[in-house]
Specification:
Helix content is about 50%, strand content about 15%. Strand 15, helix 19 (about 515-525) and strand 16 form a beta-alpha-beta unit. It has about 600 residues and is of the alpha/beta class. The structure holds phosphoenolpyruvate (PEP) and magnesium ion (MG). The site of phosphoenolpyruvate has 11 residues, from strand 10 and helix 17. Phosphoenolpyruvate binds near residues 197, 340, 436, 459 and 460.
């Protein structure tokens, strides 16, 4: 009998996937560990021997180069390193580790390095201890070779895989071309981190909260990832595969149904409209949904355009990119958010200082206002592109009205310059702000006087209201978008925007949940902006509800004393919608 191996985690992005695991190292200092099947042990040992030979050759090359440039004495250390690698004892120990523990070569070398360090550190005398680095260093080169080869092999291949890693990061989700990623699973990671945002946006099923998963995986092991339920099944049997295929077929039927109706407007049964826009991270996202299905781009996260390159994009490059997005969307608005880097959104070519508390530090608009050259280039490119579509500007991480005024002054200055230089730019470009920092909730009445619209970045607003880092998996259980404080803040924001007669939408991840989108409509928000994948569900839900129902739902959420009460109210509405749908159109319920 085959024992089922289902690991329960936390669902981050919906969808089903069946395929081979590929373990990835992301983040510094993490060496992936995975189990090796008995029949693959010898191949793993061969990989290790190959990497030792490569490292040895590399040391010889370095020795020759340094010897030529600086003399033989200086080059001596490379010879010593080579001798360390040639020590048969160390290699034998690493091979034994692979055989006995049935783990990959990388993990065996890391264990050898740890042991060497421990032994040397326990010895008497500073000069002996300093020698540790010399003993461990050549094995570090072996480790680099192993990992580099592993990476090259997968990058140059064509297979589709399920990426598995210790931590969910944006780097992991963009490790391979998205068509090649069937799913992503990670031991840790926040459900509202930017890695999670990308997975949802790319439509890649994703599960996190799987401690010690990597130790149970083998490279290439077959997995069934259920992004709906938040589970990962190791080595599914034929019965499971059949079940998977059946569920996938049902999902596809549902998706086809949603697609068929997604072009209809999101208007309630009694005529109230919710503007439904999309969040876009990359120009390639534009191909993932038909333009007619949405009311515009509610959030263009420009930092991901920057993150895809090896140096800052020039004004011309940015202009071309923004123009492409604007032209693609035609008369539908494109909300371009100025660069929002910092925390886990780092540019490889722009190192921000190490901060003890990056979420409260140098990020978003704070960087743009300090490094105004970057902002000016971006605004110039955006303004030039504005002649080719309907542009709105959105400022991230705003804390005070002074910041808004500062950007407006720069914006006007840039516009004057461009006009003087003979460029064309649209006349009235609405400027809005993200509501992400609690300070803006409390001062919204005055901010609304000076901005044209607002967009709630609930991913950040939740972290700042609750004092819970969205990227820290130690506290991810406390990251609760349905905490009464968050729900009341949302209702307060919607009411302030209504009073000021300014459009207000929510572009954070919670808007992608269709029942929550209805609650936002009931609170008084005029729109939501969601990952393309969620357009169909949200619009269908709006069309299946009345504005009274949406208001009642919003009322229940705002009166809830616990988040469990709020979630229960949302579930109740989902059940009602489901029953209604099944009654009117059998066979169209959720998969
Ligand atoms: C948010 O904070 O909700 C948001 C939309 O911005 P990001 O997720 O990019 O921080
Ligand atoms: Mg944000």
């Amino acid at each position: 009998m085959v024992t089922k191996r289902i690991v329960n985690g936390v669902s981050v992005a919906p969808g089903l996937a069946l395929g081979a695991a590929h373990v990835v190292r992301t983040g510094s200092g993490t060496v992936p560990t995975w189990s090796v099947a008995a029949e693959d042990v010898e191949r793993e040992i061969e990989r290790l021997r190959g990497a030792v030979a490569d490292a040895s050759l590399e040391l010889t090359r370095q020795q020759e180069a340094v010897s030529k440039a600086s003399g033989e004495q200086e080059a001596g250390i490379f010879g010593v390193h080579r001798m360390v690698l040639e020590d048969p004892g160390a290699l034998k120990r690493a091979i034994e580790t692979i055989r006995e523990q049935r783990i990959n070569a990388e993990a065996a070398v890391q264990s050898l390095i740890d042991r060497l360090r421990q032994t040397m550190q326990s010895m008497e005398g500073e000069s002996v201890r300093n020698f540790t680095a010399d003993l461990a260093e050549p094995w570090g080169i072996v480790l680099d070779y192993l990992m580099q080869k592993n990476r090259e092999r997968i990058l140059s291949g064509e297979s589709t895989v399920i990426l598995a890693a210790k931590e969910l990061t944006p780097k992991l989700v963009t490790y391979l071309a998205r068509e090649r990623i069937l799913a992503v699973v990670a031991e840790t990671g926040g459900g509202f981190s930017h890695g999670a945002v990308l997975a949802r946006s790319f439509g890649i099923p994703c599960v996190v909260g799987l401690p010690n998963l990597l130790a149970r995986l083998e490279q290439g092991m077959k997995l069934w990832v259920d992004g709906d339920a938040g589970t990962v099944q190791l080595r599914p049997g034929q019965e499971d595969v059949d079940l998977f295929l059946e569920r996938r077929a049902r999902r596809e039927t549902r998706q086809a149904y949603l697609q068929l109706h997604a072009g209809l407007p999101a208007v309630t049964s009694d005529g109230e409209e919710l503007v439904v826009e999309v969040n876009v991270e990359s120009v390639r996202d534009l191909d993932t949904f038909p333009r007619e299905h949405c009311d515009g781009v509610g959030l263009l996260r420009t930092e991901f355009l920057y993150m895809e390159r090896t140096q800052f994009p020039s004004e011309e490059e940015q202009y071309r990119l923004y123009r492409r997005v604007l032209e693609h969307m035609g008369d539908k608005a494109v909300t371009l958010r100025t660069l929002d880097i910092g925390c886990d959104k780092q540019l490889p070519y722009f190192k921000t200082p190490q901060e003890p508390n990056p979420a409260l530090g140098w990020r978003g608009l704070r960087i743009s206002l300090e490094w105004q050259d970057l902002l000016r280039v971006q605004l110039r490119a955006a303004l030039r592109a504005s002649a080719h579509g309907s542009l709105r500007l959105l400022l991230p991480m705003v804390t005070s009205i002074e910041e808004v005024r500062a950007v407006r002054a720069i914006f006007n200055d840039v516009r004057c310059q461009l006009v003087e230089q003979g460029y064309e730019a649209a006349e009235d470009i609405p400027v809005g702000i993200m509501i992400e920092v609690p300070a803006t909730v409390f001062t919204l009445d005055t901010l609304l006087v000076e901005v044209d619209f607002i967009s709630v970045g609930s991913n950040d607003l939740v972290q700042y209201i609750l004092a819970v880092d969205r990227d820290n998996s130690l506290v991810s259980k406390l990251y609760d978008p349905y905490h009464p404080a968050v729900l009341r803040a949302l209702a307060q924001i919607a009411a302030a925007a209504r009073a000021a007669r300014k459009p207000a939408s929510v572009c954070g991840e919670l808007a992608g949940d269709y029942a929550t989108a209805l609650a936002l409509l009931g609170m008084g928000f005029s729109g939501v902006s969601v990952a393309p994948n969620f357009l169909g569900e949200v619009k269908l839900a709006v069309r299946g509800t009345s504005s009274t129902e949406a208001r009642e739902l919003a009322g229940s959420l705002c009166q809830a004393t616990t988040s469990a009460d709020a979630v229960e109210a949302l579930q109740r509405l989902k059940r009602t919608l489901h029953e209604r749908r099944v009654a009117s159109e059998p066979g169209t319920g959720r998969a």
